[in-house]
Amino acid sequence: MDRNQILAWVQAERLSLADLFDDLDEREWAAASLCAGWTVREVAAHLTTSTRTTLLDMIKGAIRARGDFDRMVADEARELAVRFTPAELVAQIRETAGSARRAPMAAPLDPLADALVHGQDVARPLGRVRTMPTEPALAALGHVLTSPFYGARKRFRGTRVVATDAQWSAGKGPDEIRGPAADLLLLATGRPAGLDTLSGPGLQRVAATL
Fold first, then answer.
1. Upper half-sphere CA count for residue 43 (Cβ side, 13 Å)
2. Predicted model pTM
3. Of 126, 148, 177, which one is at a domain's C-terminal end?
4. Quick check: 193 pLDDT over 70?
């Protein structure tokens, strides 16, 4: 896939996220997100890291977190959420929206998946409708399903995934899961938020692994 196209999608999503964050009030900034244990403000802080975290930062964070990747990421987000004001976090997202720099070991499509999914992590619990563009969502979904990072390869083994809002499918097997690309992406990244719009004989099995 063309990297310039991917970067254009990432930039558009980051700028749209900055607009969303700009519109939040103090209560919304402090609200719980779909990321367990994370506030909306901490999600925003995390979104500033993909263009700023260096390999040395990651090594230091991993040592402090005793090798626990999830803890390392959460600790970093909480530290930044305390250090910077909401306005400063939004400014940082806008400042590097078009940057091609990625976190160490991240693939070109990881920042896109990150921005798309975290946008839903913030918008849905706040009752805000945030439409996920179909083509970028499908690109991110295809990546997540084959990446070793998200756990989806194991979770969806033996399952055909079918988007109902586009001519798209991936995987093969006796089971099938159908639904909008956005909610398939949430499921692929381990989130139950979109389960109500999904169907198919493989849904119960995959949902049980979340």
1. 29
2. 0.90
3. 126
4. yes
